[in-house]
Design a protein that fits this description.
This protein has 7 helices and 7 strands, in the order ββαβααβαβαβαβα. By secondary structure, the protein is an alpha/beta fold.
């Protein structure tokens, strides 16, 4: 792909890069989504297809707290945001949150953690925030709201 120089400029001037050329070099925000429901992965891929195509967001999916910890042990420095369901078989999202806050604070900064639940009760919200959650979302997810939160997070 050719670079275009603004008319009347010198080689040391700013170049105008085509958007697609730049997108090859931009780093996507890496997000880990933890949910035991099988339909979560295709739903996120469908709802964020534009952002994925533009290399703005890259998702990794885990279907349990244990699987999420394995992903984090391999790539914790790359994951900047975790979206985790609270109610999962085995390790709950709240237990996962405790592990994340205890085990993955170094090197800083620790990942941002947003907890997701189908039960929007005050007790889940209180426990999530006490355990170090950065935000709390309820199902069914409002993907427009989530995209707005991700935009402010990325700034």
């Amino acid at each position: 792909m050719k670079l275009r120089v603004k008319k009347g400029s010198t080689p040391s001037s700013k170049y105008q890069y085509p958007y697609k050329f730049l997108s090859l070099y931009l780093t996507a925000m890496k997000i880990l989504v933890v949910d035991d429901e099988a339909d979560v992965q295709p739903l996120f891929i469908q709802r964020f297809r534009k952002e994925i195509k533009n290399n703005e967001i890259e998702f990794t999916f885990a279907q349990s707290g244990e699987e999420a910890l394995n992903v984090l042990h391999e790539a914790h420095s790359e994951i900047v945001l975790i979206l985790s369901d609270i109610n999962m078989p085995g390790m709950s999202g709240l237990e996962l949150l405790t592990h994340i806050r205890h085990d993955f604070h170094n090197p800083p900064p620790p990942p941002v953690v947003m907890m997701i639940t189908a039960y929007g009760d005050e007790e889940n919200h209180r426990q999530a925030m006490e355990n170090g959650a950065d935000d709390f979302l309820t199902k069914p997810l409002d993907f427009n709201l989530l995209k707005e939160k991700l935009k402010t997070f990325g700034e």
